[in-house]
Amino acid sequence: MAIAVAVIVLAMGSVLFFFVSPWYLTPLASNWGTIDDTIQITLWVTGAVFLAVNLFLAYVIIRYRFSRRRRSQYDPENKSLELWLTGLTTLGIAGLLAPGLVVWASFVSPPEDAHEVEVVGQQWHWSFRLPGEDGRFGAAHNRFIDDRNPFGMVDDPAGHDDILITAPHLLLPVDRPVKMVLRSKDVLHNVKVANFRAKMDMVPGQTSYFWFTPTVLGEYEIVCAQLCGIAHFAMRGRIEVVEQETFDAWLADQPTYAEFAALEPGDPEAGASGYTSCAACHGAEGQGNQDLNAPKLAGLDAWYLERQLELFRSGARGTHEDDTYGIQMRPFATMLPDRQAIADVAAYITTLPDQPLEATLDAGDPERGARRYRTCANCHGQQGEGIRATNGPRLAGMPDWYLRRQLQNFREGVRGRHREDPYGNQMVEMAQVLVDERAVNDVVAYIATLPQPAMTVAVVNAGDGEE
Amino acid sequence: MADHGQHSVPHAQAGEFDNMELVHPRTFLGKYVWSQDAKVIAIQYGITAIAIGLVALVLSILMRLQLGFPNTFSLIDPASYLQYVTMHGMIMVVYLLTALFLGAFGNYLIPLMCGARDMAFPYLNMLSYWFYLAAVLILMASFFVPGGATGAGWTLYPPQAISPGTPGIDGGILLMLASLSVFIAGFTMGGLNYVVTVLQARTRGMTLMRLPLTIWGIFMATVMALLAFPALLVAILMMLCDMLLGTSFFMPEMLNLGEHSIHEGGSPLLYQHLFWFFGHPEVYIVALPAFGIVSDILATHARKNIFGYRMMVWAIIIIAVLSFVVWAHHMFISGMNPYFGFLFATTTLIIAVPTAIKVYNWVLTLWRGNIRMTVPMLFAIGFIFTFVNGGLSGLFLGNVTVDVPLADTYFVVGHFHMVMAVAPVLVVFGAMYHWYPKITGRMLDDTLGKIHFWVTFLGTYAIFYPMHFMGFAGVPRRYYGYGETGYIADSMQALNAFMSVAAIIVALVQLVFFYNLVRSYFRGREAGPNPWQATTLEWQTEHTPPRHGNFGAELPVVYRWAYDYSVPGAKQDYLPQNMAPEEVERTDSTSDTRGRRTS
Amino acid sequence: MTVTLVFIAMMMAIFGGWLFSHSINVRPWEAQPAGKSSRQMPVGVTASRVGLGVFLAVATSLFALTISAYLMRHDMGHDWQPLAVPGLLWWNSACLVLGSVALQAAWQAARREDARRLRRGLLMGGGFTIAFILGQALAWWQLQVAGVYLAANPANAFFFLLTALHALHLLGGLFAWSRSLFQLQQGATPRAVLPSIELCALYWHFLLVVWGILFALLLMT
Fold first, then answer.
1. Closest chain B residue to the Cα of C10, Cα to Cα
2. Which of B208, B246, B305 lies closest to C19 in CB terms?
3. CB 3.0–4.6 Å: which of A170, A328, B470, B566 could bond B410 by disulfide?
4. What's the number of domains chain A is made of?
């Protein structure tokens, strides 16, 4: 009768496991205690039925085990028993359904006084938009998205004061209901914060919504809960629930669409003077210097340079104690006084000639690396050319010794772990794909084989320079 | 008991299929390869399905290796992980379970249990298998094309299924869609056969209400599949148009890694509606045959009639009908009009009632029975336990509000593996132990069978039960790795490792099963025609294994339902369906008439 | 999805009702002497007819779902620009009607064992059907020439999808038709080909009805 014992032990054990296991709902941080209540009700009802059915099953197995002296009872049906069971089940089901529907009714109707936040999903990044002082969102459409207009804002007066938050960090005031309006630039995503309970898919071509009231101060992690491609697991963000004053102050610091659109592009001529202090290590033409551990800069895109300089300046990069060379870089970055100075330097660097590089390492096998690289290709491009939209910088033509060191830093969390470095965070997750030193060498060796645009263009540029 | 089919009644009006012409090929190829015998086709289906199922099993182990021991295996990168997820899901649901229950068990059992010589359209039946094989081969080919198999998740949701950032958008998805289309075409041929055979080719006296529940389950599942698969086909055709011809059925205006796509205005939700209009019935297409088969195993091995037969039949019909109006419960948080939630939560929970009735009736079948603890019976009890667990966790996900925090977490993974992976697979195993003696004439080894059962039953529970708790804790599914996710406890990693070890053990013990299958074929104990002393017609054939044509010179004539076990007053504790009332040996003593007949 | 739901509900209701009527008053556990006949169905209900019926149900499901998708996409997207249905389609529809009528005549001729009329009906039925399909192809070509491209608009895409699906079904029918014709040429008697002629005729009527619905749908939206 081992099976009866097994059924009893498993049934009781399952229920016991529920009580003793450390894994259960995350601490609630929103108004959706009612959702937790419906879960509780369902747990109690299903738990009771689970025990009752299985214990009865075990009893039957023991009681009616095989015996030569006995025959089964011939019992085609028993109408009253079947009716009773059907009736009781229906009651139980109704008892589960009714509270569920009541809570759903409030789930689908956001309160009048809820403020709105638009969440924009893209592969593999979150950004946010809040209505400005007019309390209304300007129209937006995927059709109008480009590098200068990442939200696809339509020329709509209501949109000029919309506040754009490009980093995946959002602040929300505590105890104020918020309606999250969801939009996607590409595929399906789902914005999920476990502690808030509520979540919803974001679908390209339409908007969807859900609402909640954050009730507990603190910091919560956003994860993506709808498969959106290769880096689905690394699509993270953060919501901080703060007091209203903190929220207001933070909001005031964020750029509006009008300010965003009016940002001056970097001026290479102004940047030339700023670059003089960089030239000492990185070389006058940004060609890099391995002896000084200074990577090549020429050929990198301005947006990436700007971002890294900002990170160095704010201390989000180059502050980890093991990041020896990052620490050396920091003081130089802090010499740039403001965003405009950074943009100018970055713009200047993009004018520098991009010279091809010789490989310095021969540890890796590019063929094995090619397979590793298919993960990287999704953000950095098939040819390592870099993709603005996925925030993946150019890799082709970059020094292999530098790439190897950075991959090791990412893998060990020396670079990219800082909480204000979202793309670094992502890269830390992705770098785990390279399980060991050899994998790093292989992928770096493969990147070294990618076509360097400079190889073909350099000749033309050289000719231009002489004129 | 083989001679019961021999009684002929003079002046009987011949049915359409009494003397159907069978193709009796003489060559080996004709007999075993291009065979039109439903039994051979069934075995072809079964072997192909199990072979591809093994591929899917290996994929699941690879996934578990990554989840249990992240960043250890350089073979598994995020792209391969998603490809494993996708192919594992699609193979298991469509190419293994659907094909095994309907193609293999359906083909073997429908003619035998209905008392027919063969399927209504044997040639079509053969074509059906070859289409299925082609579909399987096309699917396998997708592993080897540039870019590999698709990694869009088994639901193949657009836009990501055909957009950059997802593995396999070059050849993989194309082959997947092609393979599914071929599968659907093949299935339609097979399904047509099953339905017509059950409706038309039943032998004399085999009324609908005397059919064994196995046939009811397979029959209704086939009807559902015939109506549901077109939804998948339409979705596939439209997706192919979007992909190859640049139409915008499903594809909205969007960006492909920064580049504007050519599409405009399509609706990804339209695809989801079509997909789940197929996808939800698909769950029951797998479940209903399992329900039917387990009912017959329970009755036979507990020596007792199935409790509430009519209720069981009606429950199958009601489930089949209702399962067409619950599809959007897979889409509660998909961004569709949220007011649909009220309707679909209600229909979904209503479907729990007939399902619960089935569970009660299984347990009540055992009640006051005389349970022979054979290996098929062990699997059947394992099924009940697993199914109760999985069915109850369905009440969380079907109830729209409760679904919100649990959707797209490991709770879902735990739920559907319990209810539509482990539970039906336990039935498949039970059914194999049950019918293997009829198929080969030899018994499977009991000891090996028990080892197989215990490790599979306990092992799968150890894999999937803890997943529900990961779901409560909000661990999202289809994640390659969890890295440093603040709210996910570190202890979860230990739990993942535990589940992975359990999965490997369960996978390994399947080798014992295959060893048993092969060994018993040559050295198993001789089974005789009816080793379980069962009542249904397949056990009353003249030859074991049954020859082409199934029955002897005359088709059996049916006098009673399939559940005359332990009938009071009868000497034998089972009365085959084709035993005429006047043939029943009566007991003289009154001591055996404890049972009462409610009539 | 309403169209499909109504359709599935109807089919399931009829089927379920039929099953219930066969089971509600049955006491399955009572052993009874077998009846005289081994027929499970009325005499007219042959396997091939049931088979065709099941296949038609599958095809109906396919078309109903496509129509559902058509209506849903129409409501969901904001980019729907109705296309001017080519006038040629009226002529094509007439062809299909004539084809259906001709096959009906062939069926009746086969029942009366009138080989000459049977052959004539069969040939005319197939001829009109081929004319229909060619006409449809011509309509596609006209649209292409007029700059109405498949990918330009969901209305166009659906027009091509629906007509293609329908034509594919007809081509499948023509395969069965050609087999019957071939058998007839080989000297088969009308009685021998009657079952397949009958299935062809029924199938054609079904596709005519489907075309009627599709055409009406295209005209209305």
1. B321
2. B208
3. B470
4. 4
Instruction: Report pLDDT digits (tens) over B90-144.
Output: 999 999 999 999 999 999 999 999 999 999 999 999 999 999 999 999 999 999 9
Same domain, A226 and A280: no
| CA angle at B202 for the pair B198 and B207, rounded to the nearest 5° | 95
Four-point Cα dihedral B516, B517, B522, B526, nearest 10: 90
Q: Can you give the residue range of the structural domain that contains A388?
A: 353-467
Chain C: residues touching A (Cβ < 8 Å): 28-29, 76
B249 and C CB contact within 8 Å = yes
Q: Whole-number mean pLDDT of chain B?
A: 90
Strand ranges in A125-232 using DSSP code E only, listed in sequence order:
125-130, 163-165, 169-173, 178-184, 189-192, 199-202, 208-212, 218-224
**CATH architecture of residue range(s) B2-14+36-252+263-583:** Up-down Bundle (1.20)
Chain B touched by C65 (CB under 8 Å): yes
What burial class does residue B14 get, using C-beta atoms within 10 Å of its C-beta: 0-12 exposed, 13-18 middle, 19+ buried?
exposed
For position A459, what pLDDT does the model report?
44
**Residues A206 and A155 grouped into a single domain:** yes
pLDDT value, residue A280: 87
- Quick check: C36 and B12 CB within 8 A? yes
List, for residues A321-341, the tens digit of each pLDDT value. 888 898 889 888 888 888 888
Q: Is residue A390 a part of any domain in this protein?
A: yes
Nearest residue on chain A to B410, alpha-carbon basis: A225
Higher pLDDT, A459 or B177: B177
Residue B13: which of C13, C36, C46 has the nearest Cβ? Answer: C36
**Domain-located, residue A69:** no
Q: Coil, strand, or helix at residue B473?
A: coil
> Closest residue of B to A40, CA-based?
B402
Chain C residues near residue B269 by CB distance under 8 angstroms: 76
- % of chain A exceeding 70 in pLDDT: 97
Last residue of a domain, one of A298, A317, A346: A346
Section B256-262 average pLDDT: 86
Contacts of C28 in chain A (CB under 8 A): 76
Say which CATH number the domain at A467 has.
Answer: 1.10.760.10
- The alpha-carbon gap from A76 to the nearest alpha carbon of chain C, in Å, equals 7
Same domain, yes or no, for A140 and A234? Answer: yes
**pLDDT value at residue C40:** 67
Contacts of A206 in chain C (CB under 8 A): 76
Which of the pair, B31 or B457, is modelled with greater confidence? B457
Mean pLDDT of chain A: 90
Which of B14, B18, B230 lies nearest to residue C62, judging by beta carbons? Answer: B230
CA dihedral C52, C53, C59, C63 (to 10 degrees): 140
pLDDT higher than 50, residue B596: no
| Unique residue bearing structure tokens 């830390």 | A428
Let me know whether A256 and A270 are in one domain: no
Residue A394's pLDDT band (cuts 50, 70, 90): very high
Residue A73, in any domain of the structure: no
Asked if A377 and A239 sit in the same domain, the reply is no
Chain B contact present for C69, CB below 8 A? yes
What pLDDT is stored for residue A132 in this prediction? Answer: 86
For residues A96 and B264, give the distance between their C-alpha atoms in angstroms, rounded to a whole number: 42
Interface residue B200 vs chain C (CB under 8 A): yes
Average of pLDDT values for B157-181?
93
Question: Is the domain C87-221 a CATH 3.40.30.10 member?
Answer: no
Other Cβ atoms within 10 Å of B19 Cβ, number: 10
Interface size, chain B vs chain C, as Cβ–Cβ contacts under 8 Å: 199
Give me the pLDDT at residue A338, please: 85
> What angle (nearest 5°) sits at the alpha carbon of residue A181, between those of residues A180 and A186?
125
- For the segment C189-215, the average pLDDT, to the nearest whole number, is 92
Last residue of a domain, one of A230, A262, A294: A262
Instruction: Copy the structure tokens of residue A26.
Output: 């995350």
Q: Give how far B407 is from chain A: nearest CA, Å.
A: 8
Give the residue extent of every domain in chain B.
2-14+36-252+263-583
What order of strands is seen across the sheet that includes strand A163-165?
Answer: A163-165, A125-130, A115-122, A178-184, A208-212
Question: Which residues on A lie below 8 Å from C29 (Cβ)?
Answer: 76
Which partners does chain C have (≥3 C-beta pairs < 8 Å)? A, B
